[in-house]
DNA sequence: CAGCATCCGCGAGGATACTG
DNA sequence: CAGTATCCTCGCGGATGCTG
């Protein structure tokens, strides 16, 4: 982490990019709950306290297009869909653990 | 990281708390630039590409009251103030590094 | 059960100008 | 040089209701 002293315009620290994938009120928790395996929409919603259906729906779609999770539609009636972490999503584990450790230490 | 299957209401993952300290468009970069030592307001502003004076001012004040950094006023004319990381601020380093590593790996 | 459409409040962050 | 005050925009996330 070395840097000079001249003015910078477009520069940004690499951590920022990671933050983009983790910011969003529900994203960390979604990842957390999917760490153990796939969950259906409503199962996920029950685990997150108080997410709106619409909001969770949006969040999942965004995370899917970010490549963090994959959506599986069983094409059944009544509908059945589940969500699971992709490899990319799982690879965030160390990051979340570092954050958890910091939060833990901070008291 | 073990958890059951019953409905949860108030639960949240510990990483979220850490996120609160790091979210904010400029916070990660402020921490990054202060890692090497104190910087004066304008020096900091030059390093962050395109922050508004007002926005940086607000950001710094918030981070100060979060205990992440400390502000030192030299009481001179013209004004001279510099900002440096507190111990708490510096302790975020591993977290930022984990995030940086992930961003790095993600291509 | 899963998802979309519509409407809305609120706060983060930017533009600009002024002060000591 | 550092900080504050005012005004404004934009998008996140919530509330509610409808559909297959």
UniProtKB/TrEMBL annotation, chains A, B:
Arranged from A to Z, the UniProt key words for this protein are: DNA-binding, Transcription, Transcription regulation
- GO function term, MF aspect, one: DNA binding
Q: Name one Pfam family in it.
A: HxlR
- The HTH hxlR-type domain sits at 13-107
Q: SUPFAM superfamilies, alphabetically? A: Winged helix' DNA-binding domain
Specify the protein name: Transcriptional regulator, HxlR family
Q: Quick one: a GO biological-process term for this protein?
A: regulation of DNA-templated transcription
Xref: PANTHER family:
TRANSCRIPTIONAL REGULATOR, TRANSCRIPTIONAL REGULATOR, MARR FAMILY
């Amino acid at each position: 982490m070395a840097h000079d002293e001249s003015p910078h315009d477009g520069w940004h620290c690499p951590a920022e990019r990671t933050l983009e994938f983790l910011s969003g009120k529900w994203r960390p928790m979604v990842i957390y709950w999917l760490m153990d395996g796939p969950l259906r929409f409503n199962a996920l919603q029950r685990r997150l306290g108080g997410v709106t259906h619409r909001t969770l729906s949006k969040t999942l779609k965004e995370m899917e297009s970010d490549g963090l999770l994959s959506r599986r539609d069983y094409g059944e009636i009544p509908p059945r869909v589940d969500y699971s972490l992709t490899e990319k999503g799982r690879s965030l584990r160390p990051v979340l653990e570092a954050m958890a450790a910091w939060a833990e230490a901070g008291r």
